[in-house]
């Protein structure tokens, strides 16, 4: 009886502590998520009431050139930001994982872009890409004419890619550095005794042992790139000529300026499903590697 008497206040305290989190989850995640699922099957403008239309939004989506163009741009943007970010982060993390006071300071230095607010970073890069900004100044030093970085349909997407790689790399450097420092030192000692070279050691020992960390970085990097909105919104406004209109921007444009909330909700559901599939494939690769 005494144990039950003690358990009851503990259970009450547990409920009281978890209730705010549960309420926050229900109000700000579960309810909006369920509402978005419902709205994706309706014709809904913000001034009216939802009108059930079934799968019409999804049928419209895959016949919409704007959606297909945005989906393709999102794929290109994701690949071209994720791959160089991870490769460069790994190349920087390997030397920075070594002990030393200088490396500790350098690790703090590379984190500066990652902790800067994305909106502020975007505004800085607008200045860098301006006609007399740093990018064109550097080109002038090697005799190349100034470029219209943010107003050229050929260059705008690559301007966004460069900014996002610079912004994201620092966080991944720190994650990969932590992963490298956690690797067992005796494995490298045995490899050195066997006469293994630096390249062989890196490809045959470091990369396989670092696979879990690399896949973690890959998952969060791909998920972040597929949801990218702020760079396209602040730097180019989805232009020029829709050249940087990634899917999150296209969803936003249909939801608010055009007030096609039902159609935007349907596109959001498709983006969510795509992200779940991509993440599942990545985790499946991890499981396969473990086996």
Automatic annotation (TrEMBL):
ABC transmembrane type-1 domain location: 71-282
Principal location class: membrane
Transmembrane segments: 12-41, 71-96, 108-128, 155-176, 214-241, 261-286
A Pfam short name: BPD_transp_1
Domain of life: Bacteria
Membrane disposition: Multi-pass membrane protein
Keywords: Cell membrane, Membrane, Transmembrane, Transmembrane helix, Transport
Compartments reported by the entry: Cell membrane
CDD domains: TM_PBP2
GO (cellular component) term, any one: plasma membrane
GO process terms (BP): transmembrane transport
InterPro entries, sorted: ABC_transporter_permease (IPR051393), MetI-like (IPR000515), MetI-like_sf (IPR035906)
PANTHER family attached to this UniProt entry: ABC TRANSPORTER PERMEASE PROTEIN, DIACETYLCHITOBIOSE UPTAKE SYSTEM PERMEASE PROTEIN NGCF
Record family assignment: Belongs to the binding-protein-dependent transport system permease family.
Protein name: ABC transmembrane type-1 domain-containing protein
Species: Streptosporangium minutum
């Amino acid at each position: 009886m005494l144990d039950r008497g003690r358990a009851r206040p503990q259970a009450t305290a547990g409920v009281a502590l978890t209730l705010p989190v549960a309420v926050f989850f229900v109000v700000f995640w579960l309810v909006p998520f369920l509402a978005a699922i419902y709205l994706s099957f309706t014709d809904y403008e913000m001034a009216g009431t939802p009108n059930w239309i079934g799968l019409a939004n999804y049928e419209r989506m895959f016949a919409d050139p704007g959606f297909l163009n945005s989906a393709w741009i999102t794929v290109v943007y994701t690949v071209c930001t994720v791959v160089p970010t991870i490769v460069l982060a790994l190349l920087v993390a390997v030397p920075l994982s070594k002990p030393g006071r200088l490396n500790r300071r350098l690790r703090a230095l590379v984190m500066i872009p990652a902790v800067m607010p994305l909106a502020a970073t975007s505004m800085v890069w607008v200045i860098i890409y301006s006609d007399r900004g740093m990018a064109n100044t550097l080109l002038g030093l090697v005799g190349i004419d100034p470029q219209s970085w943010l107003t050229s349909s050929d260059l705008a997407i690559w301007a966004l890619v460069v900014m996002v790689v610079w912004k994201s790399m620092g966080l991944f450097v720190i994650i990969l550095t932590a992963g490298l420092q956690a690797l067992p030192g005796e494995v490298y000692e045995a490899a050195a005794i066997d006469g293994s070279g630096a390249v062989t050691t890196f490809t045959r020992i470091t990369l396989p042992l670092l696979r879990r960390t690399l896949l973690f970085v890959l998952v969060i990097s791909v998920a972040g790139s597929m949801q990218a909105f702020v760079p396209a919104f602040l730097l180019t406004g989805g232009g020029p000529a829709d050249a940087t209109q990634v899917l999150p921007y296209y969803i936003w444009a249909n939801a608010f300026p055009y007030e096609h909330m039902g159609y935007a909700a349907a596109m959001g559901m498709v983006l969510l499903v795509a992200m779940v599939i991509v993440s599942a494939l990545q985790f499946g690769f991890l499981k396969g590697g473990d086996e």
